[in-house]
Design a protein that fits this description.
By secondary structure, the protein is mostly beta strands. 10% of the residues lie in helices and 45% in strands. The strands form 2 sheets. The chain has a 7-stranded antiparallel sheet with strand order 2-1-7-8-9-6-3, covered by helices on one side. β4 and β5 form a beta hairpin.
Length: 144
């Protein structure tokens, strides 16, 4: 019988010229690990005469990643951000996600770091760190 647990999910991320070997991300937030927003797959129009048409469109995939403040994974993102500032340019990420509970894997490419706080939010206790990446491509496949 299948499950829907996220506990056995695995996410590895690499950044061209900085982390050429993908690093396993860990220390996910208790309530949120990672999410990808839905994308518009078509542009549609209805003519004044009632003829309906649609066309394929491409959009980037917006992903939020949430880490416990105690996780070592945010350091990868802070290093990525600092590296880009040092070279005054953007570098692209690649990654893979495995979701054994549903028998699926996902290959991510052309990722751009879009949003990152410079430190964890501090309240009564340190809060989760959210990083945002926009991906050019996400391809799914069954786990072999």
């Amino acid at each position: 019988m299948s499950t829907i647990t996220s506990a056995n999910a695995s996410f590895s991320l690499g950044v061209a010229s900085l982390f050429p070997v993908a690093q396993k991300l860990q220390g996910w937030s208790a309530d949120d690990a990672f999410t990808v927003e839905g994308v518009n797959l078509a542009e549609t129009q209805m003519g004044v005469d009632g003829v309906f048409v649609g066309g394929l469109v491409f959009e980037q995939y917006k992903m939020d990643l949430m880490f416990l403040a105690s996780s070592s994974s945010p350091q990868l993102f802070w290093s990525w951000s600092q590296y880009e500032k040092a070279i005054v340019d953007k570098v692209y990420a690649f990654g893979s996600i495995s979701l054994p509970s549903i028998g699926m894997k996902f290959v991510l490419s052309n990722g751009v770091l879009k949003n990152l706080p410079p430190m964890p939010p501090a309240k009564k206790v340190l809060q989760p760190v959210r990083a945002q990446i926009e991906w050019g491509t996400i391809i799914s496949a069954p786990i072999a």
